[in-house]
């Protein structure tokens, strides 16, 4: 039989399993975000993986490595001191005639449907450094955003 048709096993043909991708840039966190990361690490470390299948155990360990890395690289940021929009700000604004409110948080804490967006999101980047009363360009439109108020996210 030709060597070209010989196969020792299926292991060599499986797709490689890569680590979970880390968001680019610094790992800025609010106090709440750091607490969430610490709770996630504790939950994963406490999980009993003995009954899991090999693939599930590998996935669990990959997820644990991700969260341990996020915990080790976390950079807590103090709440902003004034009404300038920054990481840790709660911002009320109008966009397309609708009044909205968001919190600017870290990547792992972001939940857009709950009004928490990552500081790296386009909307947050457009607002950072602005003050209440300013009108900002967003989405290719001049004066698309009007900042109504800004302050630190309540603890």
From TrEMBL:
Keywords: Elongation factor, Protein biosynthesis. The lineage of its organism: Bacteria, Pseudomonadati, Pseudomonadota, Alphaproteobacteria, Sphingomonadales. The keyword Protein biosynthesis applies. SUPFAM superfamilies: FKBP-like (SSF54534). Pfam families: GreA_GreB (PF01272). GO terms for molecular function: translation elongation factor activity. Residues 82-140 form the Transcription elongation factor GreA/GreB C-terminal domain. The keyword Protein biosynthesis applies. It comes from Sphingomonas abietis. InterPro entries: GreA/GreB_C_sf (IPR036953), Tscrpt_elong_fac_GreA/B_C (IPR001437). This is GreA/GreB family elongation factor.
């Amino acid at each position: 039989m030709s060597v070209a048709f010989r196969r020792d096993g299926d292991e060599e043909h499986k797709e490689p399993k890569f680590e979970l991708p880390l968001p680019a840039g610094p790992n800025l966190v609010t106090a709440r975000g750091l607490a969430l990361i610490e709770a996630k690490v504790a939950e994963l470390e406490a999980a009993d993986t003995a009954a899991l299948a090999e693939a599930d155990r590998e996935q669990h360990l990959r997820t644990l490595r991700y969260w341990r890395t996020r915990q080790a690289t976390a950079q807590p940021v103090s709440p902003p001191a004034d009404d300038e929009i920054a990481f840790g700000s709660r911002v009320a604004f109008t966009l397309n005639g609708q009044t909205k409110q968001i919190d600017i948080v870290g990547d792992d804490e972001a939940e857009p449907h709950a009004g928490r967006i990552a500081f790296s999101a386009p909307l947050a980047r457009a607002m950072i450094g602005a003050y209440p009363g300013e009108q900002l360009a967003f989405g290719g439109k001049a004066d698309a955003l009007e900042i109504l108020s800004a302050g630190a996210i309540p603890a």
